[in-house]
Design goal:
813 residues; alpha+beta; 8-stranded mixed beta sheet; 19 helices; binds flavin-adenine dinucleotide
Length: 813
Amino acid sequence: MTTTELPSRARVVVVGGGVIGTSTAYHLTRLGWTDVLLLEQGSLSGGTTWHAAGLVGQLRASESGTRLVQYSGELYARLEEETGLSAGYKQCGGVIVARTEDRMTQLRRTAATADAFGLDCALLTPDEALERWPVMRVDDLVGAIWLPGDGKANPTDLTQALAKGARLGGARIAEKVRVTDVLTRGGRVSGVRTDRGDVEAEVVVNCAGQWAAQVGAMAGVSVPLHSAEHFYVVTDQIEGVHPDLPILRDPDGWTYFKEEVGGLVVGGFEPEAKPWVSPDRVPYPFEFALLEEDWDHFSVLMDSALERIPALHETGIRKFYNGPESFTPDNQFLMGETHVRGFFVGAGFNSVGIASAGGAGRALAEWVVEGEPTSDLVAVDVRRFGDYASNPRWLRDRVVEILGLHYAVPWPNRELESARPLRCSPLHARLAARNAVFGSKAGWERANVFAPAGEEPTLDYTWGKPRWLAWSAAEQRATRAGVAVFDQTSFSKYVVTGRDAEASLQWICTNDIAVPVGDVVYTGLLNRRGTYESDLTVTRVADDEYLLVSSSGTTVRDLDHLRRHVPTGHDTRVVDVTSAYAVLGVMGPRSRYLLAHVSGEDLADFRFATSRTLRVGYATVRATRITYVGELGWELYVPVEQAGVVYDALTAAPFDVVDAGYSTIESLRLEKGYRAFGRELTPDYGPVEAGLTFACKLKSDVDFLGRDAVEAVRDTGPRRRLVSFVVEDPEPMLWGGELVLRDGHPVGQVTSAAWGETVGGCVGLAYVADPSGVTSREWAASGPYAVNVGGSVRPVTVSLRAPYDPDNARVRS
Ligand SMILES: Cc1cc2nc3c(=O)[nH]c(=O)nc-3n(C[C@H](O)[C@H](O)[C@H](O)COP(=O)(O)OP(=O)(O)OC[C@H]3O[C@@H](n4cnc5c(N)ncnc54)[C@H](O)[C@@H]3O)c2cc1C
């Protein structure tokens, strides 16, 4: 298309002609949205895409992530037939080697995960690995895995093939057209301004790669990513290296290898990355451009590569590639619709953009067409970050750590160390003085556990039992037997007000929230498919006012969901008050005495699931009787400036009050079978699967979002069901993600697991699926069940009820 032909209107404008933009345009046309205009400021693939190494590894941490990449491989293999242009895709398989026992444990867990996802993966001895990759040295290896589904693509050819497919589907593609502004009207996108004129549009999709922060800013949307320099070299030809040679990854040496014209692409993910320019300064033009060679920085990868491939000592280097790629604060990409209606993002691909493009482009196109995602994309949802994450200095410091995480051992409960602290509770200094071991969630510093006096307050990482487990076990005992205080300030909090607040929330919430003032209701929030978008507690504060509380990581997402689903014409406002209140959880059988003591009130008549004002010392707080740990307890909602006074009053009282942290909450909630959003409750599961129909007003005739879909699943029976389990042997340590076996066959995966001090073993939750298609309660609750813990199969006791529950009738396997 020539520039003079730029249309004045298109239903969708895609900004950016890299692999992600072209894939999105291609999939939009496949879904029948043919009025698509893709604008590229330079030439197709000329941003980051052209210099990618082209590895297409299949396995991801989540099932939905894995399915996404699996689809990429299928698509790339058939593009030539469809478009006449080859994507240069070859399914050559992949070998991942382990130099250490810890890495081998990770690979065994990977193999079990592959089993859970129905993906081929085999464990290899070092000699078997050598057979598949004869050019490497194996005498220092512990073992390896083989992933036959892995492949490689030519990124430029892939982009051209996707672009051709999009054009064949009706899309128009205009190169050398730069978007200079995003036009909005009344909170909705209305088009783009370009250096060739304005284009009206219903939907604008920001696929601008490392420029995506700049394009986001044009719409008032923060897109938190930062570029880092990323390196590989291409060698001269090496004997024994042929086009069918699998991809090789040596994560303990931070390196990967791929055949190219008889030589090797040698690249990697060094532990300390080199940030490039601030996101607002990424230059234009910057087309088919590379950065300076930096052999000093690359040496950590090259030295390791020389250890693995001795032939490299005698092989020349043909070309050094240093290209910028954008990385996000948590190493997951950024996708979906933003708070500006109709303005979508697909960017920040953390060096897996080629592998992800097929699936991500399809998922993004479906999101555009359906108005909501069609599967669980919470982990990549751009709304997981608030504005705090768009500070360039914060991003710069964070990106140094993020790139290296690709090949670091993905320790369970690993905490990011860089760019901290950022968001601190008003109690932060007090908790630090009490030896809190902080983790971070959504930028918040949160106490995971407290180290005893004299111990260094740091986390150690292992697949087994870490040293801090004993500290958490003590906190668990104290909560079950006495009273503990948890700083839960990072909760997301919203005030919903207005004449129609009740009616709006009745539509948005699964549970009945038309309750008397002072009552508290636990509820799910579903989408049209009847699966979870959030779960939260709703407190009726007044006839026309509610306080909603949800988890820490979902502040922006939940706010957006709530606002989006207030029915048109309702007089209802939703305000984020997260930063206005500190939250103190006062939990344990002695919590009533403690609160009675500090408030001077008799709390005998304070019913469960009610909330009212309480005076604590000089302070005035909202006390809500509720629990996420399975004990008598209250959450105190305290104006931030009074939080210190309340904490001091609680901890000074003569009740042996113990400080406790989030690791302890995790154990206690799992013993009680309580579900968590993002683990058990996701957009892939609904209330029937999760065993939460009791929190749905299905017996009433009040309609709610997702109700029809929930009723349909209830009537036909769910494909999977959530069960609680306890590992019979107290020795193995589980962290979540383990494969679940029934009668020796894979039937599911553990969603959450932790040490349960009260039950004396690891406890967890897992979805299990009867291969016959429908999972009955009886089938789910009858064994024999086992879990695969890093290659070792351990029997578990399974129940539909909580492990820590006097009435529990557990099934022993
Ligand atoms: C050295 C290196 C090796 C890599 N190896 C692999 C690998 O092996 N496997 C893998 O999966 N991934 C790999 N990647 C990552 C992969 O290259 C990227 O994730 C992917 O190319 C990102 O694609 P994109 O479409 O988001 O970005 P880009 O390709 O940068 O596309 C964005 C486009 O938007 C255009 N644009 C920006 N602003 C505007 C505007 N205002 N108006 C119009 N157009 C605009 C740009 O010109 C650009 O062409 C590697 C990356 C590097 C740097």
